């Protein structure tokens, strides 16, 4: 059974549109111990829970970062935002997830594919790899329905300058470009054979499963497709 952790919300800022960046620090001496790539459940007042990926590698400061997409129709996400603003605290359980930075192959070319705020866990893994003594070449494919919906682009530029072997492709030609097939088509066009590659996927279950069903036809091995939501 996982522990419950009490965290104080220390800052909320809008990243773009209805996506907020939320920073928390432990409300007591007990802090969450986790690996980059994991997620937590955030408890609501009624004890229901919303899973949320941790958007930063473990730091000595013990501050946690999350990216919350909270459109009006997502009542649970709106509730989390209001809890952060009014009560200024969250209760977390976890960590959860097996697809962590420690499972990645240190040499095989690594492709990140992310949809929307699926970028959060990718960010955590890239931050951890940037500090590793050995890391594979990395390329991020990130899709949004609209070009204006991307965020933290200055961070992407910083990674490109500071991390050897890092590249990034943003995909937002139209509303269809947010689907798995369009992102995968771009990746396949760029790289072709994926038999000696590894892929870290982050997004909705439908996005991740659709991506795997496409990419396995181009040589991708199941053992090198990393996601906690993939089935089959």
Automatic annotation (TrEMBL):
Domain Oxidoreductase FAD/NAD(P)-binding: 112-211
One function term, GO molecular function aspect: oxidoreductase activity
Signal peptide limits: none
UniProt xrefs under InterPro entries: FNR_nucleotide-bd, MRET, OxRdtase_FAD/NAD-bd, Riboflavin_synthase-like_b-brl
Pfam families: NAD_binding_1
Protein's name according to its UniProt entry: CDP-6-deoxy-L-threo-D-glycero-4-hexulose-3-dehydrase reductase
